[in-house]
Write a structure and sequence with these properties.
The structure is a homodimer of 440-residue chains. In chain A, α3 packs antiparallel against α7. Chain A is α/β, with parallel strands linked by helices and 440 residues long. The first copy, chain A, is built from 15 helices and 17 strands. Chain A has two domains: 226 residues, Aldehyde Dehydrogenase, Chain A, domain 1 (3-Layer(aba) Sandwich); 139 residues, Aldehyde Dehydrogenase, Chain A, domain 2 (3-Layer(aba) Sandwich), CATH 3.40.309.10. In chain A, strands 10-9-11-8-7-12-13 form a seven-stranded parallel sheet, sandwiched between helices. In chain A, strands 16-2-1-17 form a four-stranded antiparallel sheet, with no helix packed on it. The longest helix of chain A is centred in the N-terminal third of the chain and has 17 residues. β13 of chain A pairs parallel with β16 of chain B, so a sheet runs across the interface.
Chain lengths: 440, 440
Amino acid sequence: MVKLRVYVKREGETMTIKEQARKMKLDSSKMAVQPIAARNRALVAVAKSLLDNQEAIIAANKEDLETGQNAGLEAPVLKRLKFDENKIQDVIKGIEELINLPDPLGRAQMKRELDSDLSYVRETCPIGVIGVIFESRPDAMVQIATLCLKSGNCAILKGGSEAMKTNKILFKSIYKAAIDSGMPEGCMLQVEARNEITELLECHESVDLLIPRGSNSFVQYIMSNTKIPVMGHADGICHIYADKDMDVEKAVKVIIDSKTQYTSVCNATETLLVHRDGADKLLPELNKAFLAKNVEVRGTKEVRDIIECEPATEEDFATEYLDLIISIKLVEDVYEAIEHINKYGSHHTDCIITENTETEEIFMQYVDSAGVYCNCSTRFADGFRYGFGAEVGISTSKLHARGPVGLEGLCTYKYKMHGNGNIVADYAEGRKAFKFKDLM
Amino acid sequence: MVKLRVYVKREGETMTIKEQARKMKLDSSKMAVQPIAARNRALVAVAKSLLDNQEAIIAANKEDLETGQNAGLEAPVLKRLKFDENKIQDVIKGIEELINLPDPLGRAQMKRELDSDLSYVRETCPIGVIGVIFESRPDAMVQIATLCLKSGNCAILKGGSEAMKTNKILFKSIYKAAIDSGMPEGCMLQVEARNEITELLECHESVDLLIPRGSNSFVQYIMSNTKIPVMGHADGICHIYADKDMDVEKAVKVIIDSKTQYTSVCNATETLLVHRDGADKLLPELNKAFLAKNVEVRGTKEVRDIIECEPATEEDFATEYLDLIISIKLVEDVYEAIEHINKYGSHHTDCIITENTETEEIFMQYVDSAGVYCNCSTRFADGFRYGFGAEVGISTSKLHARGPVGLEGLCTYKYKMHGNGNIVADYAEGRKAFKFKDLM
């Protein structure tokens, strides 16, 4: 059935990234039409292939780890780079969960009759060609490649150079299993050299979406140097506002988790805003908990009048620490908190601690962020915890997908219209009139 | 209730576009929280204001028309520029339809329980600040401003300079009516000078979305010179593929409408692809119809063997004529037609003429366009004809909104999560487990 021409690369022939991306784009509809049974079959094969190649993968990872150690990589980076038997079990479990998720493609979102013999259906379909540039964790390679497979998208993948050997064998295992089980040749491409990123950024005629995952400056660089739409987030300056009507015990628990459960991530809290009428009861108790967790507190003058801490400057409120540091400021009321968050925040995830449902509602409505929370940790902002199975990233953009992005964010839709020789002139000149009847 | 500070511009004080856009962004949540009753009340006031100011609007438009005539503007441009009593009636009717459309905001798209005391709802909300740069038709000013009002978005509007006087009084009438009926001050801004466009393009920290409407080169210029996400389309190279199993009568009717019903628009057909086994029966008859409508035909050698016409070059297939010209090429089968369309098309709207449902299905699945049609005119690709009431434009982007964009395309969503002191550590360390129960 798939009769579109397959370009077969001859031995020794080399294509530029741009040429490969163009070919991928022109062939992407072959990937888009794969039925769900075939896509799931490919995922089963990918899981098996990872298991079959387990030893070689672990060996390659050991080489990467050694190279990293010799290059003096820091312990947290090495920890993220490590890809052992447990990690392989984890990613295989992730693939099994992905297989069980419903098909994101071919879903009717609207059905409308325009006239008795003219109607359309709006149906979900893949975006096409997704470029993903990600950091050192090799799990990202597996997660992103399999999310693209499940959603019928072609993928261009560029992993961190620290994980080069691990990523190479992971990609080979995934791609070969996908092709052998019937996915179209060329549906995935690995980009390895750092200078090839520059070339990838120029592929706006072929790549529909770029998802960069990495440091703030890296993501900013990508956003500033390509015409391809970029989905993701540069920084994550998340806030907690502790209202005067808070439950202090809940507040301390949620703030400590939001700040310390994992510090080097975008959904960790960086700034705490406290209602003036609640500061006296919250801050002393909270400060004890911060001390116990080695959190450095930076506060405004008003804060330092209540607890002993470092001074916070204007710059602190615009900083994503990604570390055991928190800035604290007192505010007049929920409105001042909202103003601060909308001005200094990154529209990622912000939380209010209050027992007052009216104040909660105001906060939820006015705060302009992908996630607005009440009485729970900002660390919940994550595709797995939202029940999406996995995520390609978290978006702070207002367009397309916002917040954690799973399968749905990798899909778009098309309008399929079926008629019987209908022409616009009949409607424009009054011989016929639209009926507009929704069929779902 | 709306307690956020309102910035009141003092007499004589001037702000740059960037400063005004920043202020609009920071205040945009005040617009976002306006209840539907208030937004509809504002729309009623806008319609009344346009009627009340009818004479002054028509007088201003006459001045624009005179200036245009003196400057030697062509007849079609002058026709589009004209804004008389009938046009005012039309836009008022449009506003009345908009008032009757359901509220696009605050709609629950998902509701999920993560645990017994932790759940979220994903709810639609406005995008925030929309910048629209549009062409000479003054109707566009009214349509776009009222679509933004209904969807709770702030808007920065820049109309064509030919319509400057008309736009000025239209904007004044709309804005004053909106403010007087309770919309927040500063929710709309008119940009008038051409050089202010450059400044607007730099407002990526404040403007969430740019919608340019105009010529291909103008839209390309916008896309290449801003970091703001752009929605719209540069060109519209729409195709019709006439299959061997077509009904010739339907084919002629649909092709003539698609090419000639209105030529200077993005959804007019520019290229016809014909199955080799259907060319003999279709082309001679079609050519007669083209002749009667003064359409210039450009065909490949194979086409010229059947009918007399101009030669078509490679360049023709990549050209949006926007004129009474059509290029024609014969193809081997539906797959070659698909390949041609995905390569040369602009992913706007493409149609197959066939009575064979299997061939139709292949075309609908493989063609990578916002609209894929069977047996009806490509001219149906339009927000009004899709039943959206009105449109801000047509998007050929794969992200966010695709095809005609109405109220829904001006909205995004946010996740509102409500907990009871829930922390991630409990789930990460195995003391609690997610339940993931969908509540809708």
